[in-house]
From TrEMBL:
Belongs to the HesA/MoeB/ThiF family. Keywords: Nucleotidyltransferase, Transferase. PANTHER family: ADENYLYLTRANSFERASE AND SULFURTRANSFERASE MOCS3, UBIQUITIN-ACTIVATING ENZYME E1. Residues 7-242 form the THIF-type NAD/FAD binding fold domain. The keyword Nucleotidyltransferase applies. It holds the Pfam family ThiF. This is Thiazole biosynthesis adenylyltransferase ThiF. One of its GO terms (cellular component) is cytosol. The keyword Transferase applies. One of its GO terms (molecular function) is sulfotransferase activity.
Amino acid sequence: MKDLERYSRQILFKPVGREGQERLLKSSAVIVGMGALGTVISNHLVRSGVGHVRIIDRDLVELSNLQRQTLYDEEDARENLPKVIAAEKKLKKINSEVKVEAIIADLTLDNAEDLLTGFDVIVDGTDNFMARYLINDVAVKHGIPWVYGGAVSSRGMFAVIKPGETPCYRCLFPSVPAGLGETCDSIGVLSPITDIIGSFEAVEALKLLVGAESNPNLEQMDIWYNSFLQLDVSQGRNPECPTCVHHEYEFLDRSSDQQINFASLCGRNTIQINPRQKAKQDLEKLASILKNNGEVKGNPFLLRFMPDDEITMVIFQDGRVLVHGTNDTVKAKTYYARYLGS
């Protein structure tokens, strides 16, 4: 048996106790996304003694991350370390008894089931809607509880999804939001809100792992304007939910209209991103937000957005996007998620 002294203060907390601590040491969690939320969640779970923590992310550490992504430092940014590699090094120093497993990957329908199954809980550290619908499909299909969380600007929310017991994510959010999605890169974010939401997600994961009762609410808050809202969603299961009622896993299905097609355009150093569900974009509104992050030019039919000297994004009215300057699909996805939010 591992030395429990390091967890003595947690064991003194009666809802955990020695039995709960021993359960944590034998438990496993997978965290998708190692940005602001993921770094907070992983820090708490590793310090709490969750026996096996898998961390998944596709991105590198950048200087602009350091304002809110609490496991990283300037050296990580200078070395352009993958986030999961930088995080793994820090987490292993925090608790060498925990198995920390770093996976450099973009979560897709091709790998989601392999990466997420076999764990006791999935925790959301992502920053885009499509990844959450994909997590939800895997979680419901395989009966794995998961914790949803999101934060942008000074606002955040979280909820616990227990397949077969609570509404699933698709019940709460039936459709992928059409049009513009707000992201940290388009409207900013305060680091305290990511700390707060990540901490709430971590404690809900701990509750699931020790067998305690989880929060039945969808919790929403705005820490700048001091507003807090609890929505009891325990009875909110949609009797016609495609996912948890009809067991149609559209985000794991290549033929589904929910999928986004990413294709390299031969010889053009360009990735085309083409949502199969078309939604007319408000180009004027989108331009007003994107101009804070780079040069924007446009006409009634499209926008040309240049976030840096390397990449140009051409956004059409129907939602199709051309990412000029790369043939790397993962890189194109990163830019798409960063500025368009899905």
